[in-house]
Amino acid sequence: MTGTFGVPQRLEATHGFFEDFARLNGYVADKVVATLRLVKGHGPYHPSLHTRKIAGNPNPRFRFMNVDDQYRLVAVLEGDAVLFEMVGNHDETLRRGERATLSEYEERLNADPETLHGRRPGRPKEAPVVAETPTLFDDQPVTLQQILAEPELMSDLITGDLFGALEGYRDGTIEDWMVFLSPLQHRAVARSYSGPARVTGGPGTGKTVVALHRAADFARMSGRSKAVLLTSFVRNVPETLDGLFGRLAPDARDAITCRHLHDLALGIIRNRDVQVNPDWNAAKARFDRCFIENHPRAARLRGAGFDPAYLWQEVTRVIEGRGASDLESYLALARHGRKRPMQADTRRLVWELYTDYREACDRMSPPLADPERVLIYPPVGGR
What we know:
CATH superfamily of the largest domain: RelE-like
Number of strands: 8
Strand order of the largest sheet: 2-3-4-5-1-6
CATH architecture of the largest domain: 2-Layer Sandwich
Shape: elongated
CATH class of the largest domain: Alpha Beta
Mean pLDDT: 83
Order of helices and strands: EHHEEEEHHHHHEHHHHEHEHHHHHHH
Number of helices: 19
Strand content: 5-15%
Largest sheet: 6 strands, mixed
Radius of gyration: 29 Å
Structural class: alpha/beta
Helix content: 40-55%
Number of domains: 3
């Protein structure tokens, strides 16, 4: 099923294609990029490409396309889609092109019961198709359209961000993990949410990758009509994100702003002509002083097993971090991640400590603020 070709609507590339591309010298790489742009602008049968079937490959959808007299592309053509599989010199592409198959994609589609029954997540469940041998490809081969219609399954094998990734692969500044998402990561990037959402995972699990790709999607969907903000609590990360995003999605680069979260918050506060002193060390010292000045309360808190270091985190991460505006809302908080339970009487003592600390900070000129208060300024309680 090769279809009739004009200008292709979909140009995508495999992981293997990018690995080949990264090994090319700059002169040849420039020629490859020019060839891909020719395909994008004029279709895969432009005369200079000499597009032809691979005689030794039984699948008629595999094609050779010339880059020059020495180098050529191997691609799969079907309908209005082109999937670039590899690039290399004539000897390399002859050997590999003759052996190329779509079996890896077939196996992945066959292994997914949602695809076997013609249903993707989010659609109403239907009764399963009853068959003695329920395989998708007994009667006809897998189509390229079927493969490209399953981005969640194929995201770590194929990327649709062809031109956005070529430059970085050529100079070695873009890593595989920036372009190819695992199916799980792709679901986090592509999923629609009605409000805020949280992606959790330990170090090295790809949370930053998900954030980069989701920001790129937002920028492309908005057509650059809206700005996209990507922030981090870690001071040196925004600069890194900015550089990575410029290589990952240069087409959407102008729509993205990468900022350190506290710097952003301080900028907003100062633009409103609000005076605040973001001295984290001074804020912690002021809290410790409030703790020790009330001896009976300090004794009761210590007796309940809570020292100043733990209570500082309770104030900044729970009360301020969760935006508790009064005692009642603090008493109702679930305190996820705090590990140690805290009874209501103890919470009342902590709220008193927090109130003393807040008032002490607000009496200073300019008012003193810890990191979490900067993010919710004016402070909790509206003072």
